[in-house]
Amino acid sequence: MTAQHSEEPAELFPRPDMTFPALRAALARVAPSRLGEFQADRDSAFTAATQHASFNPIRVFQIKWATEIEIERHPGTAARYRAALDAANTLDRGDPRWRTAMDECMAVRDEARAAVTGD
Fold first, then answer.
1. Which residue among 45, 50, 53, 92 is the one 20 to 30 A from 103 at the CA level?
2. Low-confidence residues of the chain, pLDDT below 50?
3. Would you state the pLDDT for residue 82?
4. Could you tell me if residue 5 is inside a domain?
């Protein structure tokens, strides 16, 4: 009889390109319930880009969603983020553990953002 490993992969799939189709496809894999939010953000980014004659809103959109996907495509990172977020949402702000949870949320987001931007 062979032993079965229950280890999760380090990442579910390779990091997607920062194009709308690639980000949308990746989000559909890791958080399909957020596709409506993605589309609304995309519409807002295009509107802002047009109004301000700037590509910056589109770049902000791409980085935001690439960061979200980066967190979710790593099961360990996603679990770490959810645990910290749950703690931050349930603890009283006066509890020192609340600050620890918030710091952990920010650390996960900062690490994911750095991974997708190369910073």
1. 45
2. 1-5
3. 96
4. no
Measure the CA–CA gap between 69 and 16, rounded to whole angstroms. 9
- CA-to-CA distance for 21 and 38, rounded, in angstroms? 11
Distance CA 118, CA 42 (A): 23
Looking at the structure, do residues 42 and 84 belong to the same domain, yes or no?
no
Residues 82 and 68 in one domain: no
Give the pLDDT of residue 3: 45
Question: What are all long-range contacts of 26-33, with beta carbons under 8 Å and residues at least 24 apart?
Answer: 26/69, 26/73, 27/65, 27/68, 27/69, 30/69, 30/72, 30/73, 31/68, 31/69, 31/72
For the chain, what is the domain count?
2
Q: What range defines the domain where residue 22 resides?
A: 17-73
Q: Are 74 and 67 in contact (CB under 8 A)?
A: no
Instruction: Tell me, yes or no, whether 9 lies in a domain.
Output: no
CA 96 to chain centre: 26
Classify residue 100: in a domain, yes or no.
yes
Does 117 map to a domain?
yes
Q: Are 29 and 5 in contact (CB under 8 A)?
A: no
